[in-house]
């Protein structure tokens, strides 16, 4: 039942993400080129700042856990295997990847390199994959509670509990709970932003290819017109010469 509920919730979030991305990309498609450039730059900057916050909070929670797990009885000293910190590690790794790739996207956005759109598309694709991992993997691990707990499920359970036992939980548990939730829920807008950047990158590459083909066709048409005019001029000159040569 827990997994069924999780996947239903994930499906709703996925459809919401798709709808938001479609609306944003539709507005981009109907906007001038400069506005699209501003949009992709602002989306990338917001994504980068969000990655920094996720990285900071995930690192802080992981640091607190590893510094207290051998001394704080609330971290179950004898059952340390009960806790799974892979979600936080994945969030840290994915945030670093997204941050680096967002930097690449920003550099290519202000570059005149011939292959800037291809480079940006590759970077946006990899960043979107990293954001998807950051969104899905910790959520899957959270759904395994209470069989195994993450830092989020454990600290939030005690912080929200009103039982007598929970009265003695550590003072930093509520802060850890909030930071862990930010890491989990912050991955949703991060993924949306990366989807938008990816969509704009695909559009830019497609538009560049269309413009190139249209330019080639126009050049071929201009060359044909010039050849026809040259042939007509030569024919006219030849006819004039023949007429002048007649007695």
TrEMBL record:
Membrane spanning stretches: 6-25, 45-66, 86-107, 119-140, 182-205
Amino acid composition bias (Polar residues), ranges on this chain: 233-247
Superkingdom of origin: Eukaryota
Keyword Coiled coil: no
Basic and acidic residues composition bias: residue spans: 209-232
Residue numbers spanned by region Disordered: 209-247
Keywords: Membrane, Transmembrane, Transmembrane helix
Name by which UniProt lists this protein: Uncharacterized protein
Species annotation: Myriangium duriaei CBS 260.36
Lineage: Eukaryota, Fungi, Dikarya, Ascomycota, Pezizomycotina
